[in-house]
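Exercise 7. Given the encoded structure of a 167-residue chain, write a plausible sequence.
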């Protein structure tokens, strides 16, 4: 084989006699490190916490609906708080919170109402557009047919005289 200018011939590298031993040592060292790291991680690793008792209600983000009995009890406590002058601030805060909640509920209802209205308007608009497109397609077909009939040999519809005589 002749070598051309600018080309180099690649040769296979020869393995060193002790290279396999070095590689095995590195692999063993790596696996030892991984085992050590995994044992450390296992000590620090904790699985999901299980909460028991009354604390379950506090961890939930969404507020559950109270039963009627609890609602009545809460209302009684509020009535008692109204009578006690020291708890007036708490009562004011709770009333403000309830008003704010009602206001937000109204806003939410309005938003849902407007969204439904928008959806129905879009559906009606779409139905109208589809109907118009269908009508336009029909008109195009009729125009195309009439254009075909305008050619030679088709002089249009047969016209008879008004008196019924043959022409």
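Solution.
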């Amino acid at each position: 084989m002749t070598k051309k200018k600018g080309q180099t011939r690649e040769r296979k590298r020869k393995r060193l006699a002790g290279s396999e031993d070095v590689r095995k040592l590195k692999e063993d060292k790596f696996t030892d490190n991984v085992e050590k790291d995994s044992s450390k991680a296992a000590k620090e690793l904790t699985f999901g916490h299980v909460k028991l008792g009354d604390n379950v209600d506090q961890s939930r983000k969404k507020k559950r609906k109270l039963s009627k009995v609890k609602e009545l009890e809460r209302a009684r406590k509020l009535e008692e708080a109204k009578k006690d002058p020291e708890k007036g601030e708490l009562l004011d805060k709770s009333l403000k919170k309830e008003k704010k909640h009602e206001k937000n509920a109204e806003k939410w209802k309005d938003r849902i109402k407007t969204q439904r209205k928008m959806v129905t308007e879009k559906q009606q608009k779409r139905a109208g557009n589809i109907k118009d497109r269908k009508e336009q397609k029909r008109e195009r077909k009729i125009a195309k047919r009439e254009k075909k009939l305008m050619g030679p040999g088709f002089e249009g519809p047969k016209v008879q005289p008004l008196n019924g005589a043959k022409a």
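Remark. The helical segments are 19-44, 55-59, 68-83, 88-149. Students should compare their own answers with the one above.
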